[in-house]
Structures are given as C-alpha cells and as structure tokens.
Amino acid sequence: MGLLRNTQLPDTLAWERVLREPLLAMVPANHPLARQPSVSLTALAREPFVFFDPHVGTGLYDDILGLLRRYGHTPKIAQEVGEAMTIIGLVAAGLGVSILPAFFQRVQLSEMSWLPIDEQDAVSEMWLVWSKHHEQGALAKRFREALLSWKSEHN
C-alpha cells in the first residue's frame, strides 16, 4: 500500500483517488510574470524550465510534461533535479520557472512567486494504491480507513 501521483499502474494494483489539487507555476520574484495574477502554459513554455529528472521515477514528471504536451508545448529544460524542494530553490535562485502541485505552496520564499495556471485542467491527483491479490493487514486497513475519512472531511 502506498501513495502515488498520476502514473500508469499495472493491472495488479487497485487505487482510489485521495487528493486532487491544482498545479501552480513558480517564477523568480523579479521575473515579469511574477507581476501577473495568473499565467498561461504558453507563457511558461517560453521560459527555461527547472524540472524533474526523468530517471528519478516521479509521477509528477509525466503529469506535468503531459499537461504541457497536450497544449503543444515542449519545455526548454535548463536544469533537471530529483527533488521538488531543489526545484523550488533553483527557481528562487533565478535559474528558470517550474510547475508543482499546490501542496508545495507551503514553501514561501521572498525570491520566488507562486501563480495559478490559467488552464483549468492543470491539476494533479494523488492515489492510494494497493495490491489486488494480497490481503491487507490490520495496520494497512486502519491507514486506508483513516486516509479515506480525511478525504471525506476535506472534499
């Protein structure tokens, strides 16, 4: 049992969505886009991107890249890293722009700005995933119940 972001799952796994949240753009605070109330994917795609390393295996890589490609954009990747916190730090340092789920907006740095993305389908989901073929233990069942209870309270 585990938590995953949007990713292709094998048929041996069952899943339930526990979170759906907007994707947000991050830009350096001194960037002209930082003065806008929101930003389009087209505007972001013109900028150098700080992005996930495709070999790290994060579902966010496929999620965000897929969103950009659906709108006909291939980002100009200036830097690839393995962690979201590193992406945030590099955007704050002025190396480019990026996109992350709203969860990360908790990180507030004066050197960068978070912006809503204009496109309505700029969202990310988190799923609770478990094996279809293995009995869940008592602890896993309690975890699932607690998580689904939290979900019902926050939707």
UniProtKB/TrEMBL annotation:
- Coiled-coil intervals: none
Q: Which InterPro entries match?
A: LysR_subst-bd (IPR005119)
Q: Domain LysR substrate-binding, which positions?
A: 2-149
Matching SUPFAM superfamilies, A to Z? Periplasmic binding protein-like II
| Listed CDD domains | PBP2_LTTR_aromatics_like
| MF GO annotations | DNA binding; DNA-binding transcription factor activity
Please name the Pfam families in this protein's record: LysR_substrate
Supply one GO CC term from the record.
Answer: protein-DNA complex
- Keywords of the record: DNA-binding, Transcription, Transcription regulation
Gene3D superfamilies the UniProt entry points to: Periplasmic binding protein-like II
Q: Which PANTHER family match?
A: LYSR FAMILY TRANSCRIPTIONAL REGULATOR, TRANSCRIPTIONAL DUAL REGULATOR HCAR-RELATED
Family the UniProt entry places it in: Belongs to the LysR transcriptional regulatory family.
What is this protein's name? LysR family transcriptional regulator YnfL
Q: Which organism is it from?
A: Klebsiella pneumoniae subsp. ozaenae
What is the name of the gene encoding this protein? benM_2
